[in-house]
Write a structure and sequence with these properties.
4 copies of one chain form a homotetramer. By secondary structure, chain A is an alpha/beta fold. In chain A, 33% of the residues lie in helices and 18% in strands. The first copy, chain A, has 2 domains: 62 residues, 2-Layer Sandwich (Alpha-Beta Plaits); 254 residues, TIM Barrel (Alpha-Beta Barrel), CATH 3.20.20.70.
Chain lengths: 338, 338, 338, 338
């Protein structure tokens, strides 16, 4: 960590600061330039509060040299993490060269619906089934999901098709209901629900952590760190579009986040082109682009009857459209894997 | 709600859509132009999913004419809501011409600290005491607050000074611990933690709802709507800065949100200049500006020893600095109140 | 265009507005709902100032139903525009299924440098040569380009290799110097330099129009419209990353802009992965992703000696790296073109 | 400037880098930590291209310790700059405690209009007259201003009222036409039109430099630096709202930019609440807030007949509304000036 001091700082002020830093087990190197004195802070600076330090009168600015995340950091874990989702013969690997497509409806609506979609996406190559049971909706008047009943219907679809299931959790109190869920999703709106992250850190089950609506890459990694610090290292990151000033798409899908994250962390990275764009017509080109950019997987909304879907029909593909997307993605994968 | 149809839509396609809309109790007016056919949707369109509609192949775009929030909407409740916080002689009114300053440390650290700060801010004119017990921190390695113990220390400070207390909740399971808290704060990171909002909607206690890191004004009002739809109409909104591309301040304080919200809603609106800017030096001008823009109150961080504060010292004022800010704000209030 | 009137508007006020609109040759349909009266404006609304209308006291909001761009609008020109750059046997087509790679150094530095790079990128499959002569730099103290001399060196490289040349213009006064330039680039910072756009609209030469640092898709199309309204329909659009709140990459490359623009306009769309990311390591995955998303071409920085480049060395590829990128892009193109 | 090297850099690689830096007259301090080697670069680092350096394979990140602007930097010019606009008895000072209100119509439309408005705003306390002659409009089909004729009408209004005049320039070729203009405005869309800035740097006339649509504070100062580097130190900065993801206001007015800029630069800072919000109703609260935040002046749109204004009527005040705003601003000023 580097602290740049203001012009005109006295020796006494500087000595006081250094004494305080040393009391925090931080070693300090002093470098005096013509205009500016710079302190190099050496030691375990993850415990130094950068806001506090930069707020001191005598400090002009503070810059971190090392990232504040550890468990998620590729520097300390150079090899790719491969997360195994589900058990037995249907178990699916994600990361380290293993690519997976998660597909299914935005919301679980009925037994018939979820089983129909599950069979269709499996036939097209999906290896995991998604479906919303607890739904975070911007309006209290919108459909909130079938909740516990939705989880049961997902479990039935798993029994029929063998596909491991992925669904979103919104409340740590619901964890007992998620016993049959193979991959627990934390939605964008809960990416910094730290109380929830801590509880998920106590599980052994894999977690799919979606990037917040306007989260930085560092914040995404710090949220992964919350889960990992609790002992659960099975975290899969998901880019799902970030907020921008433009209104033609719901979000801007930040595909450069894939290679950037690849450099910073060993965790697998998947992409959600459905929520990112909010428009079915854009899912195919963005799914192909995400694959070409090196993603470890995709999560795509598919509905057998998008017009009558209870939520987010606008961005759902029909099973036929999904089949086409899956084929094109597979072709891109063959180039990438070379 | 207005739906613009794509060029080349057939009569049959349009009839199908209209039949479906009418089955949702929506009346439809058709307006055909030279290039475009436009449908006017009349009735209770809050239940129409705008994403679903705009995702249909035959629909080019959809625009809402009425806002999707009701309880929070000034159209249906023209008079300003005045929220009373605390009981008896120390009760404080916020909104409808009543202005309040909430002040106190970022984190409660010790009995001595919180009582010292509480007395100081009261002497300078603050009428409510803030202090963090449960702290949402970006890093799992940063100080997470004294939690339940912090709440007890706040209660002691209330006994000593009479100031009603304000503190943040991060988990609905903690509600029983908040019995003595007079105003429960929902932080920016939990603005769309809908499970939490629903539980707070069941209380009678006032809620201070902070705008999310990159939330739109409409999203803030929809989150207020979650609380109000549950029956709790005592909601105070708080602008605390929004995310931007610039790095000189932590956030951009969106003061135009005050008059914009004033037009849209009857709820009181306060401003947090401390978290918005992250820098003590900027708190005074922004507190004055927020007051001049018509805010119903301020929430300001004050610490007796900012350098040694366990969190966010950079943005805390000393009691002396706070006293100066409070005086200047009072002068601005006199102009506004004329 | 739709205008929603405020509650409580009198008949007289509404009549006055309608009379004024009709005097502008706009026909008006009135639709009265329970809460709201909505006016449908029919006719050539491109001349109605949306800001003026929405600013009237009696108007609550105004929404455009048709886009304000015409010449660039796919609705009125359904077929893809194919732009031909350069003359004779070295002419290159861009758009409508024809894909092109533009490559070369950020700045032209010397005769030897530009010819070396030109030969290298041609050997790897580039069909156009780029090179900066007039350079827009954020700091007045940074290298500003060789200016007129740079243009001469580009012309020499064209003579040697046959590659048509692409370079940026910053000032309409320089147009006479650009006679030998085959494709004139308007940089992101000048996307709304309307005086420059108007002058370029008088030329017959193709224009490469880069999206502004934080321009919306609509603004990009309106700037294309400025050029086209003058009579020059040879416009190629370029996505080059937009500003975001994150700092890990210089910009966020908005690849969903490709399919979105494809729907809105008939103009060709290329992508600049070098400026978007600012980091050489990210150019390859983003070039592949852009191609997979359906771009009509790429513009990539290549330098024979990136460490000593006078500008933007950080994002330049070596000729060997470029050769690898070009091969991978070609493989993706084969899938797309199926 | 600080350069953090990647792990695993060899001694030879580091030596090569240091040799190259020393050849650029930069002295280098080496600081080796357990995980990381950090280089401190000492000397005139304004000439080091930060993008180039951070792009080298062996460099992980680069951070500037000193700002890249000099002439505009308060560090080297601690006293506030006071800019004098106009001549003789009507000259107006801006900055260093002198506050000025610039008012007038968005566009000059006719002799009668500009003189009527000029007299009205003078009577209410404005000391400078604004009016657009050359208008940057997003659409080529919108009114582009009266151009040279508009400048003549402004000059006539100056003769009648004595008010110095302020108007926007869009093209360096027009400089000769601006001889009678007292303060030349560079609009947001031209903030990085560096060719124009360089030409304005050769004048002696004061320049009003508006912040770009999504410009950082540093970029604004670097654009001021372009003008000042040419020898013209009479630059006034203008905050006019920045782009955000919300759509309720046209821009977000960044009032914290005032105290932030105050710390970084000695140049005067004014605020444009009209363009920032785009809505007349928001101008008054934002004008008062800007004044309370410490601005050196305001620029406000006033029109005698906003409904029929040729552009931006939505955000123009009537003379009566302006009179009210000016009075309130004056009251706030009295508090600030204490």
């Amino acid at each position: 960590m580097i602290a740049v001091l203001r012009n005109g700082v006295t020796e006494t002020q500087m000595e006081n600061l250094i004494t305080w830093l040393r009391s925090q087990n931080i070693d300090v190197h002093i470098s005096k330039g013509a205009y500016q004195t710079v302190l190099g802070l050496i030691g375990d600076t993850t415990k130094i509060d950068i806001d506090l330090l930069s707020g001191l009168d005598i400090v002009e600015s503070v810059m971190r040299v090392t990232e504040p995340f550890k468990s998620a950091n590729r520097k300390f874990h150079p090899d790719d993490t491969v997360v195994t989702v589900g058990k037995g013969e249907n178990a699916v690997k994600i990361g380290g060269g293993s690519f997976a497509i998660i597909a299914g409806p935005c919301s679980v609506e009925s037994k018939e619906q979820i089983i129909t979609v599950a069979k269709a996406v499996k036939a097209s190559g999906a290896t995991l089934l998604r479906g919303g049971a607890f739904k975070p909706r911007t309006s209290p008047y919108d459909f909130q999901g079938l909740r516990a009943e939705g989880l049961e219907l997902l479990t039935e679809a798993k029994k029929v098709t063998g596909l491991p299931i992925v669904t979103e959790i919104m409340n740590a109190d619901h964890i007992p209901l998620f016993e049959d869920v193979d991959l627990i999703q934390v939605g964008a709106r809960n990416m910094q629900n730290f109380e929830l992250l801590k509880e998920l850190g106590k599980l052994k089950k894999p977690i799919l952590l979606k990037r917040g609506l306007a989260a930085t890459i560092k914040e995404l990694l710090m949220s992964a760190e919350y889960i990992m610090a609790g002992g659960n290292e099975n975290v899969i990151l998901c880019e799902r579009g970030i907020r921008s000033y433009d209104t033609y798409t719901r979000n801007v899908l930040d595909l450069s986040a894939i290679p950037v994250l690849r450099g910073l962390t060993h965790l697998p990275i998947i992409v959600d082109p459905s929520h990112a764009t909010g428009v079915a017509r854009l899912v195919k080109p963005m799914a192909m682009a995400a694959t070409a950019a090196g993603a470890d997987g995709l999560i795509i909304e598919v509905h057998n009857d998008p017009k009558n879907a209870l939520c987010d029909g606008a961005q759902s593909l029909t099973p036929e459209q999904f089949d086409d997307v899956a084929k094109r993605v597979e072709e891109i994968r063959r180039i990438i894997a070379k």
